[in-house]
Every structure is written in structure tokens, then in C-alpha cells.
């Protein structure tokens, strides 16, 4: 309110009314006389004067909250001063109103980030709380909420669900709901299982998946090839809508590994596999029309058996008659059902068939194969046993062969394939140009035709290189030392020496220590090691051209410090005085770790200065088990008193002790003796 106190009786109002708002550069309303007021654009049509100079604001919004002041300029005053009112704060309360909210349906790709913003204004300021499936978001560790914004760095499938943004203050509350769906590849919920069926049965391999989007298609592969591209399957196989693979009327060729792959076009689809086993009578696959055997060499007439369950036996015929191996020395039917011939000769020539059997029976005999005898390939120009050549030069190793048909010549390096190239010439020779260090080693020439394969080997020694890696590194350890030995590699044509590298296994790579090896030695005794500690060893060869490669690292552990076995003391020690002296009685230790060789008796005496038994004295006695030099802890002590006793009797006891040594050691469980048994005395004064 703003009240004007009249200063003149004039009817015409001689004043200007201004309403100003803090933060605005110009008044929000100016009224002069009877003229229409000038109103700020933000308040157009919403403010007016009432009851004189009071301000009336219609259709309040939260933005109207603030500080207001009424100013009056009296025109009939001699001064131009405004009469200011008191600053008044207009406070507006309002229920929450959303100013931003996510869509009601949100899709996000698996693995992507997610941000959902929700905000509202109102007075008091509304609080924003997110819920997922009726549970507060704060209970979900991976989802973060800050200032009403929900965020997730990497979306997973389990965040799908119904989300609610709830805003509230003292004036009211609002809730906005949304459905969140995660787009991703399918998840297989029913995987195919390994299946065993008989021939002619129908196979049903299940495969079901769940996915969003749910536009699922299923693909089945056998041995990596689509079932619709396999000649024996494509006309019979069916893939049902739910992903099930149906193979009716099974045949032996249907056996194999089948893989189901469901896809919806999102990311990488999963897959699941199962093995289908088809049991059937044994049968023989396609036999070659002709089988060639090498004259004078081993030969095999193959019977390509297919059987599940496994084949039990195979019958052969030659020229229409059963093949009797008893009349053919060096002939036998091997485990695969094929005929093995130790030395092929004219007896092998003929027409052969085979018939395989298993527990299901047989599907009949094979087609015939004509066995022919031919000479095997022969090496006309074989390679020499060894070649020495300088690195960088050219080396040609011949290998020429005769045969009918002409044999194919191939070369291979024994061991790792060399990185450096090599060439097989038209005449079968091996060309190494330029000769490299990794050409060093054994090579084999193979001459192959339809009859047989013959081979010849050679060794290439490349001179003028750094030494080759050592082999067969062996490390034997003791407590504080290790003996390292190895087999030297080729020296590259120069005298080589070796260095043994060693480090504590738990230390870094930079803490290897090198130990030189005396010339011409291929072993080294490494001393100064810690007992019971893990070490690593490697051997490095060197010659005048440089170092070769390190050997493989050998990890070993030194022997731990040996500990003496524990020996238990005797138990249940007791002392009884008799007319003849003192009778000691005890039980030996049970299951000693080493054989007992005796006992040690300790005595402690009170109130005398002599260690000999004396009258009117008191003694504590205890025993220790003995095994050679090993002694146990003492047993519990027993007390013996000579107060009022005969001193001579106790001296007799000391003599009596030595008379019962061996019988007591032979006693199996409890020992009784009068101060005897190979006893060593340890008397101490108190």
C-alpha cells in the first residue's frame, strides 16, 4: 500500500506516483494526474493503482517476487524531492511447476552414456527425487543424481525400467514418469544342448533369445557354414520362428558342431554351440579307384571307415576272395581298418574291397580299389650332409629326384620357420640368397608323387654371425648356491663365451646381475644366494661380433635352511622312595621323529653345597629324551626328599642307576628302573 497525504485542497492531483522494483532500471509504473499510467513491459496489463497510490498486481508469477518501493513527487512543493516509502518485499508461494523433464519414452544403446534432466520451480524451492521401479535411485550404486539430473557413464541392461521424477514443496508436488529401454544384442536364454540320436531320427536343437528391439532372426551354422549352404542339409533343414533347428530323418553326414546366432542388428550378436552325434552302422566312404604302393617300401591300402559307435573290425577281400593275412608275412589290419604292408611287392597287386562293422552292424562293403605297384621316387642328386657358408652370400643346395610320375620337390626348415626368404628352384634346388643367420640349422628336401614320399636332410652352418641361443638350461640348487649348466648353440664361426644373468624373482627387470663364465665352460656355480628364495637365471652367449639372444628364463628356489626334528620329552614322570632307593617311572614320547638313544636326568638340590645326594636335603628331578645329539625339552619335575633318610641308601641308588640301561630302552610303553638307563646327570645348585 501507498497512502498520499493531501497538502492542498486542489481538486487536480498535484503529484506523480512511481512504483520502482529493485533490479529494474525504470519504474514499473508511473502515474501523473489523470493521465493513463506508463507501465513496464513485463507488467503490461497486470498492474494498476488502487486506493490512491497502492499497487495492484494481477496474475502473479514467481518472477514477481522481489523488493518494491512507492515514490511520490509533490508538484506543489517548492522542492523537487520525492517522498519515498518503505521498501517492501513481495513474497510469492507456488506449487512446483516442471521447467524441464525428459520424454516419456527413452531408448539408449547398450554401453552408451545416459543423462536425464528433471527440474521444476516453485516457492519454496522444490526438491527433486528420482525413483526406479518404485525404489529410490540412491540405492543404485552406478547411477548418479546431481541437481535433479540423472546420469550413468555406461548403460547396462539392468537399468531398463520405469523411472519417476518427483518434485515437491510445501505447496504441492508433481511426478513425471518415463519408460527406459536399453537397445542391445540378444541374450540367449535357452542354449542348444549336445544331442545323440540314431540315424533316421529327427533332431531338434533349441535356441531361444531375448532382445530389445525384439526383431530377432536366427542363423544356424554347421562347422562354420550356413546350414542352407550345405548340400546334404539344405533340402531338409528348417529354422523355426522361435529359433529351433529341425533336422528330420538324420543321416551320418549330419553329425557335427552346430552354432546358433540370434541377431537383431544391434552390436555383436552372441552365439551358442552344441554337438550332434548320429549313431549308425559302420560304413565305408568313397574308395579311390586306384591305390599306388611303392615297391620295396611300406604301403597302406586305406579303408575310409565312418562309424559311430567305433568300428569293431574290418573284413577285406582281394580279387573277390577273403583276404587271409596269415599267409602274408608283414601284412596286418591296423586300428583304422586299413591294410598295412611292411614291404610292398607283386603280392599286393589286385582288386580290393573292405567291409566295416560296429555294434550297430554294417552298411555294406566298399567300392573296389585297384592296387598297383610302382617304383617310389628316388633322389638323383641328394644334398650333402653339411654346408658352411659366410653370411650374406649365396648358397644353393641341390635336390633332384626321378619318379613316375615326376615327383614334386619341396623344402622345409626343421624347427621354427625362418623369417628370411628362401626359394625352391625349378630343378628342386634350395636357394638361400642372401644367406641369413636364421637360415642356420637343419633343412629337409621332400620328393613326393602319388606313390610315396622320400626325403633327405642337410645342415646349413652360417659363418660370420653372432652366436646362437643356448639350449637345455638346467639349474640345480642348494641352500646358498646354484649350479647352472647349458648346451651351447652354434658359435657363428668364432670362439664364444657366456655370461650367466641372475636376479631375485621378486625384484624388477633392471636388477639383473651378470656373472662371467670362464672360457670354454658351459656351466657355472653361483654362490652367495639366500636360502629358501626364488631366483631367475638366463644365459647370454657372446663372440667377437656381439651377443646372441638370451636363453629362456629358468625360475628356481634355493633350498630352505634345514631344521632339526622336534623331540618330545618323557611324560608322567613320578618318583617313589623304596627300601632300596628311589624308583623313577615315566612314559616315553609317542612316535618320536628319530630313534631314542637314551635319556638325560637333571637334578636341582636345595640347601647344600655338594651335588652328591646328602641327608636332610630336597631334590627336583626331571628327564629329557635323547636321540644321538638331539635333546628334548625337560619333562615336568618331581621332588625327592632325603630329610630323615639314610644317606648310604641314596649312594646305593646312584650305583643302582647304571644297572638298568638296556632293558628299559627295550620296554615298549612304560619304563621302571631305579635311577638307571644310560642316564647323563646334570646337577644344578639353587
Q: What do you see in this structure?
A:
- The chain is an all-beta fold.
- It folds into 7 domains: 15-92, Immunoglobulin-like (Sandwich), CATH 2.60.40; 96-183, Immunoglobulins (Immunoglobulin-like, Sandwich), CATH 2.60.40.10; 191-280, Immunoglobulin-like (Sandwich); 285-362, Immunoglobulin-like, CATH 2.60.40; 378-458, Immunoglobulin-like; 471-557, Immunoglobulins (Immunoglobulin-like); 571-685, Immunoglobulins (Immunoglobulin-like), CATH 2.60.40.10.
- Helix content is 2%, strand content 48%.
- The strands form 16 sheets. Strands 1, 2, 3, 6, 7 and 8 form a 6-stranded antiparallel β-sheet that branches. Strands 10, 13, 14, 17, 18 and 21 form a 6-stranded mixed β-sheet that branches. Strands 19, 22, 23, 26, 27 and 30 form a 6-stranded mixed β-sheet that branches.
- A hairpin with a 3-residue loop joins strand 46 (471-477) and strand 47 (481-487).
- It is extended and about 145 Å long.
- Mean pLDDT is 87; it is low at 7-12 and 648-686.
